[in-house]
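@channel sequence for tomorrow's demo:
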Amino acid sequence: MYNPKDLIEILAGNVRKTRSPFATPRFLTNRWHKGLSIPRDGEALLFTGLMYQFVPFIESVTHYLEKYEDTKAARLMRYGIYQPKRLSGLGIAMITPRKERRKADEILQNISRILVKSGVDFCYKPELDFYTGILLYDLGDQDGFVNHARFVAESLKKAGIRKLITVDPHTTYALKVLFPKYTGIHFDVQVYFELVDFEGGNGEQRVTLHDPCFYGRYLELSDAPRKALAKLHVECVDVPACGAFTSCCGGPAESVSPSLSRGVMERRVEELKKTGEPIVAMCPICLGQLRKSGAEVRDLSEVMARCAGLH
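structure tokens (generated this afternoon):
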């Protein structure tokens, strides 16, 4: 296991100086919207929180964390706070396969097409699409989280943003629960799958959903994706540990103890496999984590896009 304090100091320092936990250059991190005709004006702002974009970088970093956990080299992490932030961020970007970054981009492109298909009046402004800082909160750096959250909330408020459409549970929880509590600024927040308003049936007929902890336990949104899939004539075959009683994918622990994280993931995958149906995730952290098992795991947006004939 790595020293959590070393990890927190590195991530918090990156966020303070670059607004990114990995200090990766923004022009390399957020490219999914390039070439798409998404309006810059609309009733609601599509706010990705950069979580899907970060997953390929997370996987590259955790690959090395897992390799050196519980070795003498693990002690060197404490010196990460002295490395130039942007230089280390560029290094992470360079070791991350472009293929994996494109996969993350495709998910966000699917989500934008789903919103268009549903007739949602939305816009996208990449300069306002910030990371929420949720990982700092999860790791216990409340002061760092609050400082960053205020910057994000005030930037959105200054731009006149009132309604946000989110794409992942971590960002949704931060905006709906934590931002009002710690910044005093409120936004009308909905997840994209709450807005699905079309029928289809070109994809899978039966799937097994893995409920992320934030959707299942804390936001009580587990029914929403199931209702959206029902409109698309897709049946959800649930495992006993679902909804408010869902099991963790192990992802939140991967930066501190990759071995512990893998053990939790393997148990969850075995639970999900018991239905014999395709496994579907709706969180970038869960998606990346469950795929490490070698199982075929699809993102919810891909299933919906197929049903809508958008593929």
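heads up for whoever presents: Strands lie at 44-46, 122-123, 163-166, 188-191, 206-210, 235-236, 279-281, 297-299.
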